[in-house]
Amino acid sequence: MTANDPARRIRDAAEALQPALVAIRRDIHAHPELAFEETRTAGIVAAELARLGIPHRTGVGRTGVLGVVEGARPGPTLAIRADMDALPIHEETGLPFASTIAGKMHACGHDIHTATLLGVGAVLKDLAPMLAGRVLLVFQPAEEVLEGAAAMIADGAADGIDLALGFHNQPDLPVGTFGFARGACLAAADRFDLVVRGKSGHAAHPYAAIDPIVAAASFVAQVQTVVSREVKPIHPAVVTIGSFQGGATYNIIPERVHLKGSVRTLHTEARDTAEAAIRRLATGLEAAMRVTCALDYQRKVPPLVNDDRVLEPVLAAIRAQFGDTPQEGEPSMGSEDFAEFAARAPAFQLRIGSGAPGRADRLHNAGYQPDEACIQLGVQALTRAALDLLA
User: Fold this and answer.
1) If you ran DSSP here, which 8-state letter would residue 356 be given?
2) Phi-psi group of 57: left, alpha or beta (phi > 0 → left; psi -120 to 50 → alpha; rest → beta)
3) What are phi and psi of 128, to 5 degrees?
4) Residue 112 confidence (pLDDT) above 90
5) Interior CA angle at 329 toward 328 and 335, to 5°?
6) DSSP state at residue 199
7) Distance between CA 82 and CA 78 in Å, rounded?
């Protein structure tokens, strides 16, 4: 086996690691932690990096961990990122390693991601003499609330990076396959709170009150026109009202209504259009319905844009490792705060098939069961990608 043909070396190493990585994954799965609570998970990561002799620091972005694999020669810095947090979902899988914490579950596979990146670190540590540059192993908290990447970056996690590589398990792809999308592959995520304040009163005398429920309902209907009548049809966008809270009983017009909404867009122009429209509709509601509106509009993360300068070499690396070409797919209106790293360096997010035979699971589902074979396959793909990017 030569340095120019590392496929078997990577495959044998990943397959040998698989039992230990599955054990780590199941341990993390049984003890899920929500955003910025990942102290136990971070401790497992730090202990494993220490065992491997990989220098690292903890407490990055509150609960993140940053490891470094130094190559033998100078070269670029590649960041590979995995997320660690769980979701506030009660697990219903019945697995022997199911969540031991009521109302918390790894229903998005971040336990899979954490174990996979640990495997990548282990294999790259042995391959370090073949690397020209360095690899940052980024174990990130709080992806599900879209705040962990920014927190780590504020603590220096993106300083000096030249390339960034992300990945996500994909249950709609069979295990053993890989996927990708070109360009903007995941949407910008923004959210807003709108408090509509009227004047409370008796339900029998609405003329003596100012009804915020009617006004808020009017806003819900109007905001649907943002996508249908203001955003270009070729620019995907989604505006959703996820919460409508107001009133407590049958015969009282309440004082206020609180709406919570989200906005997803793939293009900057659509993002700007949607925000401006929502602000205008809230202002117009005051004049039209005699209410007052307090709008808190927050831009969370930008679109995740895959850069061909990273995408193409990674696809070539996967073809070299597995002999198969990853499947090109469509963008998604879901969001990912790996976009914060992609906004700072050329980046690519790889889709790793995790669909188990005979199952049709989806992410964020109480019964989600990814095929654990995706761990060692992900280790192979990401290790080979890193090796070729830093060759």
Assistant:
1) P
2) beta
3) -55, -35
4) yes
5) 130
6) B
7) 13
CB count within 10 Å of CB 53 equals 8
- Residue whose token pair is 């022997």: 96
Q: Is there a contact between 66 and 139 (Cβ–Cβ < 8 Å)?
A: yes
Spatial contact of 87 and 163, defined as CB atoms under 8 Å apart: no
Backbone torsion region of residue 89, taken as left when φ is above 0, otherwise alpha when ψ lies between -120 and 50, otherwise beta: beta
DSSP per-residue string spanning 25-62: HHHHHHS---TT-THHHHHHHHHHHHHHT--EEEEETT
Q: Are 332 and 187 in contact (CB under 8 A)?
A: yes
Which pLDDT tens digit goes with each residue over 147-184?
999 999 999 999 999 999 999 999 999 999 999 999 99
The pLDDT tens digits of the residues spanning 175-217 come to 999 999 999 999 999 999 999 999 999 999 999 999 999 999 9
Beta strands in the chain (DSSP E): 56-60, 64-70, 73-83, 132-140, 163-174, 178-180, 183-186, 188-197, 201-202, 237-245, 252-253, 256-265, 292-301, 304-306, 327-328, 347-355
Please tell me what DSSP assigns to residue 84. Answer: -
Q: What is the spatial distance between Cα 341 and Cα 349, in angstroms, rounded to a whole number?
A: 11
Sequence-distant (≥ 6) Cβ neighbours of residue 299 within 8 angstroms: 188, 190, 271, 275
